[in-house]
Amino acid sequence: MEATEIRKLAALEDTHWWYRERRVLLGRALRRLAAGTRPGRALDIGAAGGGNTRVLRAHGWRPVALEYSAEGAGVARARGLDVIRADARHLPVPSAGLGLVVAFDILEHVDEDHLAAAEIRRALRPGGTALIAVPADMRLWSAHDLAVGHVRRYDRAGLRAVVEKAGLVVDELWSWNVLLRPVAAWRRRRSTGSDLDAPHPLVNLGLRTVVTAERHLPVRALPGVSLMLRAHRPA
Q1: Residue 166: pLDDT band by 50, 70, 90 thresholds?
Q2: Which residue stretches of 14-170 are H helix?
């Protein structure tokens, strides 16, 4: 992702409906893990400004934010987070040392996504968990994807194949941002660049209200704008 987009993301992530709801979903996933997993060392790949890293810390994990760009790493460091700069295909961490790896919106930026997935598997201890999110469905491909540095969007079979080829066991795979998919498709057809901007506060509230409703509706099997996945490294 270009430096300009990283700066925009870091400025928006605390208030933008998309990032706020994603942090809620991450928190819910962490609470489910807490039933059988004692929080330990974690890695947040592609941390940007560190919004998800802060969620990990709030839930008792000892996270490190990994960011490729100098801009994102600088913002995360200024927010008091432990940060390392590195490529997702070459994680500078010991093998089998992490209880959790979070990789939200990372694999789609990497030409060799299988290498990044293999590194996640290597870094996890046996039984450790990977939480992964990617943009869904090449039918939604647009100028936005090009502007933010995407290489691809994923379908369920494609994402599962990359993760399983790396040696991880998929526990759950579901769609997110289902209710707003028609709106996203309409906007992407008219897109001439990145959609990453600050919506009007009332629009932001309305979109957040809609996407929040998904927590309570049986829509995770339907097509969405994103795919989310939980997997583990087998013993």
Answers
A1: very high
A2: 17-34, 51-58, 70-78, 113-123, 143-147, 156-165
Pairing of strands 169-176, 41-45: unpaired
Single-letter residue type at 229: L
Asked if 98 and 70 count as a contact pair (C-beta separation under 8 A), the reply is no
- pLDDT of residue 131 exceeding 70: yes
Kindly report the pTM of this predicted structure. 0.93
* Side-chain-side CA neighbours of residue 32 (13 Å): 11
75: tokens are 């913002």
Residues 115, 119: Cα–Cα separation, whole Å: 6
Reduced DSSP (H G I as helix, E B as strand, rest coil) percent helix, strand, coil of the chain, to 5:
45, 20, 35
Which contiguous run of DSSP H or E holds residue 5? helix 3-12
Helix (H) or strand (E) holding 4: helix 3-12
234: left (phi over 0), alpha (psi -120 to 50) or beta: beta
Q: What angle do CA 200, 17, 116 make, to 5 degrees?
A: 130
pLDDT band of residue 1 (cuts 50, 70, 90) is low
Q: 75 pLDDT exceeds 90?
A: no
Which helix (H) or strand (E) segment holds residue 64: the answer is strand 62-67
